[in-house]
Amino acid sequence: MNIVKPKGATTSPKVLGRGTGTGKGCTAGKGTKGQNSRAGGGTRLGFEGGQMPLFRRVARRGFSNYPFKKKFVTLKVGDLAVFKDGDTVNRETLAAAGLISNRTQGSKIPIKILGNGKVGKKLAVAVDKVTSGAAEKIQAAGGTITPPDTGA
User: Fold this and answer.
1) Residues 6 or more apart in contact with residue 9 via CB below 8 angstroms
2) How far apart are CA 150 and CA 100, in angstroms?
3) CB of 103 within 8 A of CB of 84?
4) pLDDT digits over 73-126, tens only?
5) CA-to-CA distance for 35 and 30, rounded, in angstroms?
6) Residue 58 located in a structural domain
7) Parallel, antiparallel or unpaired: strands 129-130 and 73-76
8) Cβ distance 134 to 113 under 8 Å?
9) Which CATH number characterizes residue 125's domain?
């Protein structure tokens, strides 16, 4: 079996500047006059016609911590209401309850519990970080907070 190219799949490139009868003669598709019609014409990247370019207008000074920012998957204390009294709250149980995605569950992104909402159940919480407000609410309900089991 031979594979055949569709008709018109390969065409020869348009020849520029070879007389008016060729379809791209005279100015060769560059228009008339102006900087971009000249040989070697054109401007550098970021040039704005003499106006102060954006990359010079925007201040760039000092250190930015943005690339090194610590990212967390955040949950509210009120979200833990789906668990039963005495349950353990960790990465696996949160994924099983649908509170964190399975993609997050397998990754190394740390989980942080915030103090919004109420918890009325005794839970054993084993996540990466718990805010002080969330810790007070969990402990007031009779729960415990432990560091997560890394399995190492």
Assistant:
1) none
2) 18
3) no
4) 999 999 999 999 989 999 889 988 989 887 766 678 899 999 999 988 899 999
5) 10
6) no
7) unpaired
8) yes
9) 3.100.10.10
Question: What average pLDDT does the structure give for the chain?
Answer: 89
Domain count, the chain: 1
DSSP run (H or E) holding 124: strand 124-125
- Whether 34 is covered by a domain: the verdict is no
H-only helix segments in 21-152: 54-57, 91-96, 102-106, 132-140
Q: Residue 103 domain-assigned?
A: yes
Find out whether 138 and 145 touch, Cβ atoms under 8 Å.
Answer: yes
State the amino acid at position 135 in one-letter form: A
In the three-class reduction of DSSP (H, G, I as helix; E, B as strand; rest coil), residue 108 is classed as: coil
Instruction: Tell whether 140 is covered by a domain.
Output: yes
Look at residue 62 in the predicted model and tell me its pLDDT.
Answer: 87
Residue range(s) defining the domain that contains residue 82? 73-145
